[in-house]
Amino acid sequence: MDLGEINPVLLVASLMVAATPLLLAAIGELVVEKAGVLNLGVEGMMIVGAISGFAISVETGSPWLGFIAAAIGGAVLSLLFVLLTQFALANQVASGLALTLFGLGFSALMGQSYVGVKPPSMGDIHIPLLSDIPVIGPILFQHDPILYLGIALVAAVWATLKYTRVGLILRAVGENHDAAHALGYKVIKIRILAILFGGACAGLGGAYISLIRVPQWTEGMTAGVGWIALALVVFASWKPWRALLGAYLFGGITVLQLNLQAAGVAIPVEYLAMSPYIITILVLVILSADKSSAPASLGRIFHASH
Amino acid sequence: MKFTSLLASAAMVLGLATGAVAQDKTKVGFVYVGPVGDGGWTYEHDKGRLAVEKEFGDKVETVFVESVPEGPDAERVMTQMALEGADLIFTTSFGYMDPTINVAKKFPNVKFEHATGYKTAPNVSVYSARFYEGRAVQGHIAGKMTESNIIGYIGSYPIPEVIRGINSAYIHAKKVNPDVEFKIIWAYTWFDPAKEADAATVLIEQGADVILQHTDSTAPQAAAQEAGNVITFGQASDMSEYAPKPRVSSIIDNWAPYYIARTQAVMDGSWETVNTWDGIKEGMVEIGEISDAVPADIKEEALAMKAAMAAGEYHPFTGPLKKQDGSDWLAEGETADDGTLAGMNFYVEGLEGEIPQ
After folding, report:
1. B325 and B335 share a domain?
2. CB B65 within 8 A of CB B9
3. Cα–Cα distance measured from residue A191 to residue A173, given in angstroms and rounded to the nearest whole number
4. Are residues B207 and B318 in the same domain?
5. Distances (CA, A) of B23 to A114, B20, B27, B58, B87
6. What CA–CA distance (Å, rounded) separates B250 from B236?
7. What is the interface pTM, i.e. ipTM, of the complex?
8. What CATH number corresponds to the domain at position B227?
């Protein structure tokens, strides 16, 4: 065993990369659930985002266009969920599951001609001066732009939910849609926008895996990240910064346990392998000991006549 | 992943309704652990399935279910296939061993073939390939080509098949490069591209300049390509889209001849329980083209080793060899017997770390 072989700078830098897909998907779902909608289709939207982003960036040679396409792809798929749950008033759990199934199959179909293709590289931002600081530079200031976008989104979602009128309305719709409706807010319209936002974020998260973290296209490559994002939202008590913390914890321990294994640390591998799940859950459960709870209207169907 | 198989089995129920028409066809089912587009393990099994279709045309009908988790869910999928009228079912991952035996008991008239396991029954055969022969070739190339003397190895689960591969690669790397060190990561998954890529990246960050993988996707290849100046080997499939570098060679599993022969046996009524373990000699294990990134002399040595194994002159586990704890395993010139290899649960001398139990 030789812990000296683990480079802490590279470790922290790669944990941020490992956490970003999870973070993007979770922050989108958080907004959706704050609006009172439970969309279990995160995995499906992510994988569709992964292939949309991959295909477009390969075709155009631009990773930026790829990410935009990924956001659109995820949002378009979530439109299906909108149609089912907001207009046809279908059960949200069943519709979400259907969305995941459909997304996995549909992405495999779309991706058939992209297996083994190498996507254009996005490249990291090197901020002059800042990125040259030893230790802190490589950790904080030498990443790809999407990673920063993820963090910015968390801050934006937090500020919007907490300080703006838009955030207040969104929360009102999520807590009590009948009251919000009575006050004259367009419940369905607000929820549709939230769902689309969630879809776009999930799409970005998926594309982050296929364009930056791996980078390649393989069928089913999100391999369950969407489900972890869903769990993360709950454990984070629907609070944006806690979702960030949870995502970094999860990503961090995932990368750390791989590092420990490679360095030959004498902890049984089984414990290392389950540690990301256990530690993330433990920390977030302890944090959520306060009174915060789920939006009251979460998962309930709204119709103006009720 | 469970939901994919849920959908697939729903589709199969639909298939049940339409399947009744074609009674005279031999129906062959395949249970896959990953998606058919994984570019590795499952992809090659599916090529075998397509070869069966091509060989027998109208006389055969094949069905498959992909991304079936190793566990109780597998049993459900197999039962469904058997109920649906499959005559022969290939279950293509180690973790399907007990589910296969359980389902086989319930359907004595259906023939089962389990890949890489060791439990047989009157209607269950097992088959596997001697991947460790290919690992010997990889170990040789890896040992010769590494500059950092650190070789990274991504294992899936600590099962005999994977441990054999690690031992074989290590023995042959060590033989040509006494300073070589193996770093092993257990991913605890067969297919999770993001995790596989992370594992490869971690190994590279810790100094490895050769990555061997025993997981099913091409993600480690992509990670190595991104890192630059690292070499890899295709696993289960050629993965030639990453040639000439990082992928410098590969182990290719060629299941097609076996699948065709076994389907034929079911058609003839000559099917019997067998325990097949074929290697380079029989063509079940192929070595993918060694790319130009490998110097000519190393390539020649590797090919000579392959030829010796094909001729039956060389066994990758030939003594003198000791186990990790220093106890004697094989005496000078002695070769390992198949029983020990099939149940291999120890590292050879020189490897560090413990095998998770």
Report:
1. yes
2. yes
3. 8
4. yes
5. 38, 6, 9, 12, 11
6. 8
7. 0.82
8. 3.40.50.2300
Class of domain A3-120+145-287: mainly alpha
- My answer on whether B69 and B148 are in the same domain is no
pLDDT band at B7 (very low <50, low <70, confident <90, very high): low
How far does A2 lie from chain B, in Å, by closest CA?
11
Q: What residues pair up with B29 in beta bridges, in sequence order?
A: B63, B89
Domain final residue pick, B111, B129, B147? B129
Chain B residues touching residue A215 (CB < 8 angstroms): 222, 226
- Cross-chain residue pair A218–B356, CB shorter than 8 Å: no
Same domain flag for B117 and B162? no
Q: Which residue among B3, B36, B194 sits closest to A214, beta carbon to beta carbon?
A: B194
Nearest alpha carbon to residue A187 among A198, A197, A199, A176:
A176
Q: Would the pLDDT of B11 be above 60?
A: no
Residue where a domain terminates, one of B99, B129, B159: B129
**Could you tell me the residue ranges of all domains in chain A?**
3-120+145-287
Total Cβ atoms within 10 A of residue A166: 12
Structure tokens at A156: 């934006």
**Contact, B44 vs B253, CB < 8 A?**
yes
Q: Does residue B277 form part of some domain?
A: no
Q: Is B292 helix (H, G, I), strand (E, B) or coil?
A: coil
Q: Looking at the domain assignment, is residue B272 inside a domain? A: no
The whole-angstrom separation of Cα A194 and Cα A28 is 8
Angstrom distance (rounded) from CA B3 to CA A110: 19
- Which residue of chain B is at minimal alpha-carbon distance from A11? B202
Quote the CA–CA distance of B110 and A13 in Å, as a whole number.
53
Shared-domain flag, residues B155 and B222: yes
Same domain, B156 and B79: no
pLDDT at B5 over 80: no
φ/ψ of B65, rounded to 5, equals -125, 125
CA dihedral B255, B259, B262, B266 (to 10 degrees): 170
The verdict on residue B46 lying in a domain is yes
B125 touches A at CB < 8 Å: no
A223–B192 C-beta distance less than 8 A: yes
For residue A222, is pLDDT > 80?
A: yes
Task: Express each pLDDT in B29-84 by its tens digit.
Answer: 999 998 888 888 999 999 999 999 999 999 999 999 988 999 888 999 999 999 99
How many whole angstroms separate alpha carbon A181 and alpha carbon A166? Answer: 15
Angle formed by the axes of helices A165-175 and A145-163, to 10°? 80
In chain B, % helix, strand, coil (3-state, to 5) comes to 45, 20, 35
CA separation for the pair B275, A46 (Å, rounded): 43
List the single residue in B with minimal CA-CA distance to A21. Answer: B194
Counted domains in chain B: 2
Q: Report the pLDDT value the prediction gives residue A115, as an integer from 0 to 100.
A: 81
A149 - beta bridge partners?
none
- Mean confidence (pLDDT) of chain B: 90
As given in the structure block, the two tokens for residue A17 are 């990369």
Q: How far apart are CA B220 and CA B194, in angstroms?
A: 9
Q: Does B76 share its domain with B113?
A: yes
